[in-house]
Write a structure and sequence with these properties.
heterodimer, A: about 325 residues, alpha/beta, Immunoglobulin-like, Purple Acid Phosphatase, chain A, domain 2, 2 domains, 5-stranded mixed sheet, about 30% strand, B: about 375 residues, mainly beta, 4-stranded antiparallel sheet, 28 strands, globular
């Protein structure tokens, strides 16, 4: 009984604090509204926090305490494996965390499913520029299209304006479908983007398919000197068993960091790369195995994923 | 009796003197480390003096790349951002006399000093049509090397050795013996090894090339591990023509190969990727990065036995960019084992827990390069 009271008291402030006051990621580093966790009922998803915390999922109808197994993470963080109860209803959830001294919540950061579809559509949001209003319209279009989730490769991190990124985060809090953000090609871990949406490379699985979002600028950008190439290699291995391995990035060009190209297009080539911009002379990936699906413009691009392949749905 | 003991003791000391000298000299690491420090506002090369712990800013701060020491340890070269693209910046180790090379092309990358310290080779031009250029620091002239072939990058020098003579010879060595390549003898020939693109717009790969002032020649196929199209990368010659190491995906995944007079061998041989070989100064060991423990760790392999030993490996962090001390007893490397990327030091056997350098105000620190032994006072900054 006392434990229940203590738990309730700990969660009272959660409705107040979402991320840090300036919108930066706080106690919960991942998942978040631009990099949500997708999980089946009765299975598990991963979280990364600054320290161990009591976790729960919250929707309009229900609050679900989570059973978490913790382990040491990178950079002083901890990672947790969260078991999803088998009776948890499908849909979007807010992940809430509480420690003795702090609380945090990430809205629409966890999506639960009763089954992943074998055939589905992706909504690809490319573009040469982006605003909160444009992103809101694009996500509305994506939601109406019946897409399972959205991949946003528009150059969000091109802006150094934290207020614009906060506005984008607010739009993502109301997204009608899971949305995955990919940083712009020249962003770095010190950019406002990184503070709000995390590291440059990440991966997730949707059913039998693996997705890898990355940013691989050419030299002398410091990404090539950091742990970024290693992260891409690890993430590529993580999605290796997938039916389709699908990368997504802001754009492809031959000057992309060569270590990244060797990892993603030569040694263990992705099946498909989805890019949000097409550079003249770089309309294909020359290494031979990886198909490029790219679009220039600001329209939402629909892509169909099925046993037959990963293909753009061209407007009739 | 006492006299006999003294004689034996004296003889022992004389016999063991080289070993004792090595132990004395390597008890503490010494010298200087160049590295690239990053902050919210800049990316700049610094030099850390190991004895005093003091750092000296020597870069431009405008996006400096990985620093490369001149053979005599007096100067450094690295790429840096300019209004046009990237240029090679040359500066003395105390930060004085810094200057940008006046390039013909906007993009210039991967500088390497010639063994005599007079020339710097680098890739020039936009990817994928870049070529190899050599800048003569005495005449201030930039010269394109090789034939018209483009797509070349990451040059390393092999000039002044019999290896180059044999690689560019029109006559195959007797019996095409790899051992013939490494018969050491002085040579006046000037040349580079480089990585080059091969294939077309839909079947690109990479391969090793020999680049001289006038020619670009494919590395002889008979001296590579096997026939076929494999993507080579990161070629590194050992000092004094004692071998060369390179990466290849020959065998299915990325491995480190070593070519010596004994043959060409996959020395890292593991199903996880192995990257970025770096020779020890005595050319007995190759340090490399590997994912065999899950995260990126640093290992060393003996070129004769192919035995692999861990140097810096973590379950929950990456370790990378190793560089050897001039005496071969220590390695400097980068790790994120305690948060932001920092420089760490360990003995080459990995017996001691890595020591972290706390460099105030300049973390993360990347791409460390140990200063070579300075051989003359004139070479000191």
């Amino acid at each position: 009984m006392n434990r229940c009271i203590l738990f309730t008291l700990l969660l009272i402030p959660l409705a107040v604090f979402a991320r840090e006051p300036n919108g930066s990621l706080g106690l919960i580093q991942s998942p978040h509204n631009g990099r949500p966790a997708l999980a089946l009922q009765g299975e598990s998803f991963m979280v990364e926090l600054q320290e161990e915390a009591t976790l729960q999922l919250r929707s309009e109808k229900r609050t679900i305490p989570l059973d978490v197994t913790w382990s040491v993470g990178s950079g002083g963080n901890v990672t947790g494996t969260c078991r999803v109860p088998s009776d948890a209803a499908p849909g979007p959830y807010t992940l809430e965390a509480a420690t003795v001294t702090s609380t945090d919540q990430n809205i629409r950061s966890v999506y639960l499913y009763d089954a992943f579809p074998e055939d589905y559509r992706i909504a690809h949001v490319p573009g040469e520029s982006v605003s909160a209003e444009r992103l809101q319209r694009a996500l509305a279009t994506a939601g109406e299209s019946g897409a399972a989730f959205a991949l946003i490769t528009a150059p969000l991190a091109n802006t150094k304006d934290p207020e614009l990124l906060e506005a984008i985060s607010t739009v993502l809090d109301e997204s009608p479908l899971p949305a995955f953000l990919c940083p712009q090609q020249n962003s770095s871990d010190d950019d406002p983007y990184a503070a709000l949406f995390g590291t440059r490379s990440f991966a997730f699985q949707f059913g039998r398919d693996g997705y890898l979002g990355f940013n691989a600028p050419g030299a002398p950008n410091r990404a090539a000197l950091t742990d970024a190439p290693a992260a891409q290699h690890r993430l590529r291995r993580f999605i290796r068993p997938a039916r389709w391995s699908i990368g997504f990035t802001q754009h492809y060009d031959a000057a992309m960091d060569m270590r990244s190209q060797l990892t993603l297009f030569v040694d263990d080539p992705l099946d498909v790369l989805i890019a949000g911009d097409v550079r003249a002379g770089h309309e294909t990936i020359p290494w031979g195995s990886t198909a490029l699906i790219a679009t220039a413009g600001n329209d939402v691009q629909l892509i169909e994923v099925s046993e037959q392949g990963v293909n753009e749905i061209r407007p009739q | 009796m006492a006299r006999d003991c003294l004689i034996v003791a004296y003889a022992t000391i004389v016999a063991m003197w080289p070993v004792l000298l090595t132990i004395i000299l390597s008890a503490e690491p010494s010298g200087a480390i160049a590295y690239t420090a990053v902050s919210q506002t800049e990316q700049c090369v610094y030099v850390l003096d190991l004895a005093s712990g003091e750092t000296t800013r020597i870069g431009t701060g405008k996006g400096d790349g990985a620093p490369r020491w001149s053979p005599d340890g007096s100067r450094l070269a690295f790429e840096t951002r300019t209004d046009k693209g990237t240029a090679i910046y040359v500066v003395r180790a105390d930060g004085s006399e810094g200057r940008l090379i006046d390039h013909a092309q906007a993009v210039n990358q991967s500088p390497r000093w010639s063994p005599d310290g007079r020339n710097i080779a680098y890739a020039t031009g936009a990817v994928p049509t870049q070529r190899i250029a050599v800048f003569d620091l005495e005449t201030n002239t930039e010269t394109l090397w090789g034939s018209e072939q483009s797509g070349l990058m990451r040059p390393v020098w092999i000039s002044g050795t019999g290896l180059l003579d044999r690689l560019i010879s029109t006559e195959a060595p007797v019996g095409r013996s790899i051992a013939q390549l490494f018969i050491d003898r002085p040579s006046d020939a000037e040349g580079l090894l480089a990585i080059g693109f091969t294939g077309g717009a839909k079947n690109r790969s990479t391969d090793l090339f020999v680049v001289t002032p006038d020619e670009t020649l494919p590395f002889p196929a008979w001296a590579l591990p096997s026939q076929g199209t494999y993507a080579e990368w990161a070629v590194e010659p050992a000092r004094r023509n004692r071998g060369m190491a390179f990466e290849s995906n020959d065998g299915g995944d990325r491995e480190v190969f070593v070519l010596t007079s004994e043959g060409v061998y996959d020395v890292s041989n593991h199903r996880a990727a192995d990257w970025n070989p770096v020779w020890s100064p005595d050319a007995k060991w190759v340090a490399f990065e590997s994912f065999r423990s899950g995260r990126r760790g640093i290992y060393r392999v003996h070129r004769g036995t192919n035995r692999v030993f861990p140097i810096a490996v973590s379950n929950d962090a990456d370790n990378w960019s190793p560089d050897w001390s001039p005496d071969g007893q220590w390695l400097i490397f980068v790790s994120n084992r305690r948060g932001p990327e920092s420089l760490y030091l360990t003995d080459y056997q990995g017996d001691q827990p890595p020591e972290r350098f706390v460099i105030e105000g300049s973390a993360p620190c990347l791409a460390p390069a140990w200063r070579p032994r300075t051989r003359s006072k004139a070479a000191r900054p």
